[in-house]
Structure formats: structure tokens, C-alpha cells
Amino acid sequence: MNISILGCGWLGFPLAKSLLQKGFLVKGSTTTLEKISVLENAGITAFQIAVSDVKINGDIDSFLSHSKILIINIPPKLRGNSGDTSTALSMTFVAKIQNLIPFIEKSSVEKVIFVSSTSVYSDTFSIGLITEMTIPNPDTESGKQLLKAEKLLQNNSNFTTTVVRFGGLIGEDRHPIKLLAGRENLENPEAPINLIHQVDCIGTIKAIIEKGLRQAQSNKEEVNEMFNAVAPFHPSRKVYYSKKAQELNLPLPKFDESKPSVGKTISSEKVSTVLGYEFQRPEL
């Protein structure tokens, strides 16, 4: 089976290599010409494709051709240099997805896996565990656009869409403590963490693909689905980041405890019960 991955970056590239090891034929996209050879050397059929809010540069038709599954892994990049979101950027990501959909509709793609984020849920929730049944209420521009993009894809009847909402992404080369170490007056010390390791992001997506293959073998029709994917490990920010700083011999972060903490706890129970996936890095 052919799988196309739109966005072979920090997550998409190792995902592509893992799918190749499972016997899938993988097409991968990158926006930079220099990375084409990197993808090809890994056995990925590489395409240089850039999706903008006005057009798509690159051979998107060939990229999608003969693929049954498309994984969309292009995160919204909405902040300007000042850190504020401008009006000009306010619909950029949604427009990208709108531009992409007609190409998916006329292709062989039957299933889309859309990589989204738990930022679609507000950080001010105080109602206990957040599940896939919780009504999203994003309070960031990226969260708002991701939610709109999810709906655009799932409301399209030409293909099915599974949305996977990942928590904060970490890996061997990526961890928020490297940015937080030594900083002062950090907010929400008692807020729970909602993180997921790269290996479990890959494992969750592969479990979604495998579930679809099982359904196809049993002649069950696929439907749109939603999964929250975070490690089942939710210590407070203060406890977790202080421990990580000590482990890595970094300066301890200092938290502002003068104000009440707000935060959310994301449940990933559905990933375990419906997909049957067991987290490899449950305690990060």
C-alpha cells in the first residue's frame, strides 16, 4: 500500500522510515530542495511541495497518485516576529487546507490522518479530564485554525479523516526544559503536563493505520474518528520540569506561586482502548 506524508520534518521523517520498515511504499514531501536527497537515501519517494494560502507549488498530483492514505503533518506557523498574530496571518493555515482538499478529492486517497494538537482545548478548563467528547474551545490562534481545519476535513464526504490531537511533542533532541531552565516567574506551577514522546506519536499513527487495515479485511466501513494522544502521566509543571532540570544538570526553573494555577488534563484512554496501543514512553 502507498502512503503519502505531507511534511517529512521532525515527526514525519522518522514516521516515514518506520512505515517503510513495515513494508509500506512511502511518498514524502519537503519544502526544501536540499532535503530531497535525504529522503531518497532513506528509501522515501521524495517530492518538493510547498502549500501556501494561495497555491500549491510542486507536483501534488503525483505525490497523491496511487496512495490510499494521506498523512497531513504541516503545523500552523502563525506568529509574527513580534509574537502577536496579525490579521494577515489569521486564516493562513485554514486556507492551506482549503487549497489542498480539491487535490485530495480527485486523487486515489481514501483516508486522511490529520495531525492536530490538544491546543484546540482551552487551558482554562477546570472540569476534570478532557476526553474526545469535550467540546473544544481554543484560546490561541493556532488552536482555532487547527479546529477549523479538522472540521473542513471531517465534513468532506469524499474521504474519511482521522484526527489525532497530540500533546506537547518531546524527543531525544527536543524537550521544553531546555527553554525553561533558569527562567523565573513561570506561571501555572500546579498545572498538569500533557506531553507525548516522538516514539509514541509514531506508534499512535501506525496503530490508526493498522486499525483501518483490520477494518478493510473484515469489510467494515471506516468512519471519521478523533483521538487525543498524550502520555498517561500528568505530574505538575513544577515537579516535572524541576526533576528534568536536575537530571540534565540544568538550572532549575522558578515558578510564580502567587496566583492560582490553571490547566487541563488530557485523557488518552481512547488510544489504549480503541487502538489497543501501549505507550512506550509512558512516564517521559
The largest beta-sheet arranges its strands as 3-2-1-6-7-9-12
Poorly predicted spans: 79-90
Q: Determine the mean pLDDT.
A: 93
Could you describe the largest sheet, including whether it forms a barrel? 7 strands, parallel
Tally the helices: what do you get? 9
Query: Would you report the number of β strands?
Result: 13
Shape: globular
Classification by helices and strands? alpha/beta
Strand content: 15-25%
Oligomer: single chain
Indicate the percent of residues in helices: 25-40%
Q: Compute the gyration radius: what is it?
A: 19 Å
Q: Spell out the helices and strands N to C.
A: EHEHEEEHEHEEHEEHEHEHEH
Termini separation comes to 33 Å
Structural write-up:
The chain has nine helices and 13 strands. The strands form four sheets. Strands 3-2-1-6-7-9-12 form a seven-stranded parallel β-sheet, sandwiched between helices. The longest helix has 20 residues, at 198-217. It has helices at 12-21, 36-41, 60-64, 92-105, 141-154, 177-180, 198-217, 237-247, 269-274; strands spanning 2-6, 25-30, 45-48, 50-51, 56-57, 67-72, 111-117, 129-130, 160-166, 168-170, 195-197, 225-229, 265-266. Helix 4 runs parallel beside helix 5. It has 284 residues and is of the alpha/beta class. Strand 1 (2-6), helix 1 (12-21) and strand 2 form a beta-alpha-beta unit. The model is unreliable at 79-90 (pLDDT under 50).
